[in-house]
UniProtKB/TrEMBL annotation:
This is Uncharacterized protein. The chain crosses the membrane at residues 24-45, 51-73, 93-116, 257-276, 288-308, 320-343, 355-378, 390-412. The keyword Transmembrane applies. Keywords: Membrane, Transmembrane, Transmembrane helix.
Length: 426
């Protein structure tokens, strides 16, 4: 048998087996990374603030990453035993780097949990202040304009309206709010812009003034309930500018527009990156490509930060929501752009499923970068330099980037195949 015969007979079958194995591998990998964290995150949303949930999440997700690594090793050995070859990047990207990025981001959440104070607010505490405020207002309407007593207002509200209307965690005798004694003294004559209910250290029947004010260490903003029946969203450091007594005036300064300036600068950098991509071969190198994708992801994060700067001041949204949105947008951009650039610059366009490993890794990494960029800008804009928000939000950005980066391949699968067919016809 000649060398020519060998060259004709060997590649076909192993290549076919290798393709089938890799396709199954990527589908199983992506299903694991998609379904397991999603189910756990839904559970975490239901009882957010529970350290037990974070511990369970960390253990299960760690086991998931180990399972993905074992699966990658098994498939690599299987492909090689069938006579196929697996390049280092084909194995390392989906089998090692993607789970590692997820695991590191999860470790940030776990570390942030221990850094936060033990009296963390439960999910929805900012919404609860409006509910409690309406309960106090209703109590006043039913008692000739008289507010509840300062030293037993929690008990009086529950006695008047029932425990079902409030969420005080009565079994622990904890309530993360306090009443303003000055507003209680004035009763129905209290000015509409005077603070009535504000966040405080958890207790029961707490009342006082500014000295009791305590914001969640993981929030850029908090809400207070005013005597006029409205809620006001403020930065924690601006609490002293609220109207706590009849002689005070509400004077909340507007925040500096750091995010607006930053997004403008990053848009210019992104435009410069596009110009370089069209006019220069620099970005055809790996380092240039990595820099270009980094700029895109940072731009996406900064864009969401600028949006957050505009909407957060009037409406509070949980901090990790911005991390999820910024990371998801960057994940779509990374998966699509990264895949598109590979298909354009490669002499042969690989099949779509073989790019899933690259796209999930790129999506996870850029999701992490975008989420971090968004929160760093917000932290600078609002003079909030504690690390908790970015620790909690960046993993959401990482996971959404990984998920949407991989999903982008589903919509781009036909493009590589058409390119491959055209190359074969040529």
């Amino acid at each position: 048998m000649t060398d020519a015969d060998n060259n004709q007979s060997i590649p076909n079958m192993p290549q076919e087996k290798r393709g089938r194995s890799l396709e199954i591998w990527y589908k199983i990998l992506f299903s694991l990374l998609l379904l397991t964290p999603a189910a756990l995150l839904l559970l975490a949303f239901a009882v957010a603030g529970s350290l037990f949930i974070y511990i369970i999440f960390a253990i299960l997700f760690g086991l998931l990453c180990i399972a993905v690594l074992c699966l990658a090793l098994k498939k690599k050995n299987q492909i090689q035993s069938e006579g196929g070859a697996v390049r280092k990047d084909e194995f390392a990207i989906p089998g090692l780097i993607t789970p590692a990025v997820c695991f590191i981001s999860l470790a940030a959440v776990f570390a942030g949990t221990f850094l936060m104070e033990t009296g963390i607010y439960s999910l929805g505490s900012d919404w609860r202040i409006g509910q409690v405020g309406r309960s106090v207002t209703l109590y006043s309407n039913n008692h000739n304009g008289r507010f509840p007593d300062a030293d037993k207002w929690c008990d009086q509200l529950i006695e008047s309206q029932g425990e079902g209307s409030l969420m005080y965690q009565k079994e622990n005798a904890n309530c993360p709010f306090a009443l303003n004694e000055n507003a209680l003294t004035l009763g129905k004559d209290a000015p509409d812009d005077m603070v009535l209910i504000f966040p405080a250290k958890e207790g029961w029947n707490s009342s006082g003034g500014l000295e009791l004010f305590q914001a969640d260490s993981g929030s850029y903003f908090v809400k207070v309930f005013l005597a006029g029946g409205k809620t006001e969203t403020i930065r924690p450091k601006d609490a002293e500018n609220l109207r706590w007594s009849i002689d005070d005036k509400m004077n909340i300064p507007e925040p500096p527009a750091y995010a607006s300036t930053s997004i403008g600068a990053l848009i210019c950098l992104s435009a410069a990156g596009v110009f370089l991509r069209k006019r220069s071969v620099y970005l055809r190198r790996r380092a240039g490509l990595a820099a270009f994708i980094t700029v895109l992801s940072a731009g996406a994060g900064a864009g969401f930060a600028a949006l957050a700067e505009m909407i957060f001041y009037s409406q509070h949204v949980r901090n990790y929501g911005i991390g999820w949105a910024a990371g998801g947008a960057a994940g779509i951009a990374a998966g699509a752009v990264f895949t598109g650039l590979l298909c354009k610059w490669k002499s042969e366009s690989p099949e779509g499923f073989k790019l899933m490993g690259w796209a999930t890794a790129a999506g996870a990494l850029t999701g992490l970068l975008a989420s971090s960029a968004a929160h760093l800008i917000l932290m600078a804009a609002y003079d909030f330099f504690l690390p908790h928000p970015i620790m909690f939000a960046s993993p959401f950005g990482t996971y959404s980037g990984l998920l949407l980066g991989g999903l982008s391949i589903v919509f781009l699968q036909e493009l590589p195949r058409k390119n491959t067919q055209s190359i074969e016809q040529q």
